[in-house]
UniProtKB/TrEMBL annotation:
Subcellular location: Cell outer membrane
Main location, first listed in the record: membrane
Chain residue ranges for the region called Disordered: 100-153
PANTHER family assigned: OUTER MEMBRANE PROTEIN ASSEMBLY FACTOR BAME
Name recorded for this polypeptide: Outer membrane protein assembly factor BamE
Domain Outer membrane protein assembly factor BamE, residue spans: 33-102
Gene3D superfamilies membership: 3.30.1450.10
Protein's membrane topology: Lipid-anchor
Listed Basic and acidic residues bias regions: 104-113, 144-153
Keywords per UniProt: Cell outer membrane, Lipoprotein, Membrane, Palmitate, Signal
Length: 153
């Protein structure tokens, strides 16, 4: 009987430790789609060409499959410990490629809490990936006697 009690206690403890955790899981904000800001949308004017719109907003995330005159810019921010924020701008062009309609969804006036300064993401082409690493200011140069001699030309 004592052995059975130990087995049950051990099994219950193991189940609690493995399946139930009181320590929270680390989450991070996940931005997806085209970044849309109020400043970008304010630059849009009816009558702009597709090239001008693309210069201001970038390439659209979605083009209507049956009618390429409608462009959708969608941004979704899945905040780690709160709700999901969605922004959408739909632009419609006429047959001559002129902007005729701007539809906005979501609150564009709020600043987005994107932390782009400290994240180590994909490097731009032509940059050294080691330059993106944070530098340690405590490092010192080795003494002159330990330095390798400079190559002779």
């Amino acid at each position: 009987m004592q052995k059975l009690t130990r087995i049950i206690t051990f099994s219950a403890t193991l189940a609690l430790i493995s399946g139930c955790s009181y320590v929270g899981v680390y989450k991070r904000d996940i931005p997806q789609g085209n970044l849309i800001t109020q400043e970008m949308v304010e630059q849009l004017q009816l009558g702009m060409t597709e090239e001008q719109v693309m210069y201001v907003m970038g390439r659209p995330l979605l083009e209507a499959p049956f009618d390429s005159r409608e462009w959708d810019y969608v941004f979704r921010l899945d905040k780690a410990y709160s709700d999901i924020e969605t922004r959408r701008v739909t632009l419609t062009f006429d047959r001559q490629g002129q902007l005729t309609q701007i539809n906005k969804e979501g609150d564009l006036s709020k600043d987005l809490p994107l932390d782009t300064e400290t994240s180590l993401g994909p490097a731009s082409e032509g940059t050294d990936p080691l330059d993106a690493l944070p530098s340690d200011s405590t490092q010192t140069q080795p003494p002159e006697s330990e330095r390798a001699p400079a190559p002779r030309p």
